[in-house]
Every structure is written in structure tokens, then in C-alpha cells.
């Protein structure tokens, strides 16, 4: 269906972009790999040239172009080269994206600029450069890898800058679909669950892949969209929903670990518990929304250290912490817990032999985590993955994200004792 079509894909040297490229290449499509990795990266797989080899091997024609979407001239040069090489552009996939899951005060200005430049401005400028050529195609499409615009404050409070940048890509869909209706189809595609990519490995740490699906599911969904007529436009599509409508019944083929609970992706008001059952997100009660504030009130009125599951968990942690944990972690964690067992608690994995208990840590915390006491116990006993808790809004993190990930690694070692 895409034989002879020319696809211009940003960020196609690896991950989702490359998966979409390889799917189209099987039809004999021409792929412009517009990405910035020309030399091998120390920690990320693939370059524009290795991706080109894979695309050619799959049956397509490849044109690797060094493109940093923050640089408008690089975009324009690549578009001109694509048109000169293949005679035009039929499809644009805006896949390149930058992410920083940090709160407002923790997000460095250079990170804000990066996300706005890559996600919003890069998408806008690449679309602008390709549109004159897309309008000449018989069945032109723009596909942005961006979410439906969900204005639930949950998706803003933990990573405001990232959310704004991704919704900026979605607003390009909203505006351009209407502006070019009848000429160019413009749609958005977003995964229902986390997708296993190099970025997800960095965000979630070891073991996260079991909660993810392969990039193939997005490649198949993208193929469905890009082979539809240009009248199919202005849609915000979720991969699994579309594929079910197309008749796909077996989704285990897309799982990294079939049968393992999957982590829901950002911006979708669905959370997955540890048994894999999808549930509608429940609105937090006033006391839970207050989080740390409500917890402080409890702390001040408490005459003695609380008892119960939270206190017992900290007692076990205190007994399990070793000098090796301190040496390898070098972080101090403060927990602001609401509900049963609420209050301020800490784990000190920086000072001396380490310690854990009720109250504020002996030195300033590197990471402050806010959540309910019940979810804290689930997290420390292996029933709730910290990454899942964070992505579903149950856990709020302020401070050093790298140290937060280190704690998750230590948890996996402690789970047997807890």
C-alpha cells in the first residue's frame, strides 16, 4: 500500500520512529531518516546509517539525513534533499521528542527550552517545511506522536513543562487538520501502554521492560492510519483502540512479557493495578490531594511514633539497610505520607551506616516523595512498581530523579525481606 511513497520521519534512527519506518519499508516505501545521531551514541543504540541499512534490508529505500529539529535550516535542507532524491514527500511522521519528568522548580531552563524546541517548535517547523510538498501528493498525511489533550490537572502537576510541550504537538494536529482539511490528513497517535524504548529504560530502570509493549504496536497502528484516505483527519488515536477496530484480537504478540501487567501511558485516565485490571481513575479526596500538607497536621498532633503497616515497613527497612546500600546509593529520601500511618518519614542512605524512621531526616533530603501510606506499603512490598505509581499520579517526586531510580533498584533487593 505504501510502495513508492516517501515518508519523512523525524527521530527515525531508533525506537518508535524506526519501527514505523521498517513497517513502511516492507511495502517498498522510500524513507527519509531525519535524526541527529550520525555517530554511535555511548548509551543509545543505532545511528541514521545503521537504520538506513535495516530499512534497505526490509525492502525500502533509505535517505539518512542529519537533522536536529531545533535547527530550522537542517529541516529545510533535508526536505529539499528528500524532494530531489525521491521526487516529493507523501507522509510526515513527527516522532522526535524530548522528555523530562520533573516539577516546575526542578526543571532547568535548558530542559524547558529543549522540550519546547523539539516537541512543539520542531513539529511545527517540520510540518511547515513539508506541507508545500505534501499538498502535491495524492494521499498526504501528517502523523504526530502526541496524546489526546486531557486537561485533568493530574497530568500537569508532576511535569508541567513536558505536558505543555506534548500538548503543543497535539494542538498542531487540531489546527493543521482544520487548516488543510481536504488537502492533507493530520492525525495524532498515542500508545495505551508504555512502549519499550531506550528512553523508557532510562526513565524506569532495570525490569521496566516487562511492563511495556514492543514498538511494533505503534508501527502497525501508524500503518493503518497512513493507508487511510486523506479524509481521515483531525483524530487523536490510541493504538490499541484502533487495532481492535481493525480486527486485531491477540495483543500478547505485542507484549515484551506476555501476561505481565502493563503500565498505562501518560495522559490517559486509566490506571492498571498489579493484577492487570484496568480501572477508571478515582478522584482524590480533599485530604489526599493535600498530600504533604495533610500529613504535616498529623505529624504535629502525634504524641508518639505511629504504629501499623507503615511503621512496620520502616522498622524492617531499618534492619535491612547495610553499609553497601549507603555506599552505592548516597541519597537521603523523605516521605510525606497521607492517610493511615501518615506523617513525615525518611530513609538515610548517605550518612554513616544508614538509617530509617519517623520524622525528618538528620540531613536535608535529596528526594521528597509524597503518596498515601497504603500505596507506600504496596510499593515497598513489591505490589506496586514505583514507576507505575509515579506515572499514574499516586506518587509525586521532587528532587533528584536519578536518586529516585536508585531507590527503586534497592527496593528490588529488599522485597524478599519485606
UniProtKB/TrEMBL annotation:
Domain SCP2: 322-411
Principal place of residence: mitochondrion
GO MF terms held by the record: oxidoreductase activity
CC terms in the record's Gene Ontology section: mitochondrion; peroxisome
NCBIfam families per UniProt: PRK08278.1
Record Pfam families: adh_short, SCP2
Key words, A-Z: Mitochondrion, NADP, Oxidoreductase, Peroxisome
Region feature (Disordered): 277-307
Entry annotated with the keyword NADP: yes
Compartments it resides in: Mitochondrion; Peroxisome
InterPro entries the UniProt entry points to: HSDL2, NAD(P)-bd_dom_sf, SCP2_sterol-bd_dom, SCP2_sterol-bd_dom_sf, SDR_fam
Family in the record: Belongs to the short-chain dehydrogenases/reductases (SDR) family.
Protein name: Hydroxysteroid dehydrogenase-like protein 2
